[in-house]
Amino acid sequence: MVQTPIISNIKEEVLNPLVSVIIPCYNQARFLPDAIGSLIAQSFKDWECIIINDGSSDNTHEVALTFVSSDQRIRYMEQKNQGLSGARNTGLNHAQGRYIQFLDADDLIESDKLRLQVESLSNITGLALCYSDYRHCPEDNVMETIKRDNFPPPRFIMSKPLHDIAARWETQFSIPVHSYLFDARFFNEYGIRFDITLLNHEDWDCWMCIFTLNPVIKLTPGALAIYRICNSSMCMDRKQMWHGFRQAIRKQQHIFRNDPIMLCILTDKLQEIKKNYSSNRSNLVIMNFRIYAMRAYKKMMPWPIQKFITNISHKMIQGRLLT
User: Fold this and answer.
1) 6-255: which CATH topology?
2) CB 3.0-4.6 Å disulfide test: which of 189, 213, 239, 268 passes with 185?
3) Is residue 204 within 8 Å of 249, Cβ to Cβ?
4) Alpha-carbon gap, residue 116 to 284, rounded angstroms
5) What are the b/e assignments for 156-179, b being 16+ CB within 10 Å?
6) Full-prediction pTM beyond 0.70?
7) What per-residue confidence (pLDDT) applies to 274?
8) How far apart are CA 64 and CA 56, in angstroms?
């Protein structure tokens, strides 16, 4: 049963803000000040922020209310845990803005993001969205950038962006949720929401629904979103991510069951993801075997013999280099 949110800060809502920023938070109170701080630092000021405490057991409540008391644009809600999708949906149900900015509690946005993207969309009358590049940072230092060569910049290259999302997602390109700025009509008029039944990849499933509507798509130059790499992140669980993506793809296969082209793309995607997961799993098994073998070798082999074998190996390598 869906729980009714409890509005903890009793005050009037911001009247007609241009942008609604939705921040779901589950046991990430330690990161929340950075996320909200990046919002307060925006050069664009016409926004409201909705923080949804999704049943946290840490001090999210106290941290959030310190910002609520100092900025009338910030609202706070609590609910029993419904997962990331349920928390975002709660934010969407209470959003007042013309545009929607999603921002997870452990991520940040650059100070000009809202201004640049609102300007980009302001003269478009039809359904539209804007997206930007992004950068990765380590968990404990948002000023540092982690270079990840296996993450190419997000670019649409196919004739239909929906085909890009269906065919190339995760293996060739990806767009974090906070890189986007969405027209609120996707959610208000078309009723698009995040699917709470999916294990993960609820964002991809949501984007599939949005891009099916053929919106105008604008790219804002620059890495305007900051994606924090957390060791405890769900995306580190490869097996769970595989099961979630498979579940989401099969859902979309059913939706596009009468579209031969999309059905073919999604079927190929399912096979690609399966091979990708199997390959990563095999590589992980081999890597773990090598680690365990090396530990056993160092633990059981007497040190003089280890030293002798190491010297012999070095001489063999040098001999190959000389020849």
Assistant:
1) Spore Coat Polysaccharide Biosynthesis Protein SpsA; Chain A (3.90.550)
2) 189
3) no
4) 42
5) beeeebbbbbbbbbeeebbbbbbb
6) yes
7) 87
8) 12
Average pLDDT, the chain: 86
Whether the CB-CB separation of 54 and 3 falls below 8 Å is answered with no
Gap between the Cα atoms of 178 and 103, Å rounded: 5
| Strands of the 128-138 sheet, one edge to the other | 6-7, 74-79, 47-54, 19-25, 99-102, 181-183, 128-138, 216-229, 108-109
Q: What is the residue-wise DSSP string for 68-108?
A: HTT-TTEEEEEES--HHHHHHHHHHHH--SSEEEE--TT-E
49: left (phi over 0), alpha (psi -120 to 50) or beta: beta
Q: How confident is the model at residue 87 (pLDDT cuts 50, 70, 90)?
A: very high
- Rounded to a whole number of angstroms, the CA Rg of the chain reads 23
Tell me the per-residue pLDDT of 155-165, one tens digit each, with 9 for 90 and over: 999 999 999 99
Token output for 157 = 């290259």
| Helix H or strand E encompassing 115 | helix 113-121
Tokens standing for residue 100: 């929607």
Nearest to 137 by CA among 110, 157, 170: 110
Dihedral sign computed on CA atoms, order 186, 72, 33, 143: positive
How far lies 18's CA from each of 76, 126, 130, 216, 217, in Å?
18, 17, 15, 19, 19
Condensed to tens digits (0 to 9), the pLDDT of residues 225-239 reads: 999 988 765 555 778
250-304, pLDDT tens digit by residue? Answer: 999 999 999 999 999 999 999 999 888 765 544 444 334 444 455 555 556 676 6
Domain positions in the chain are 6-255, 272-322
Determine the pLDDT at residue 278. Answer: 67
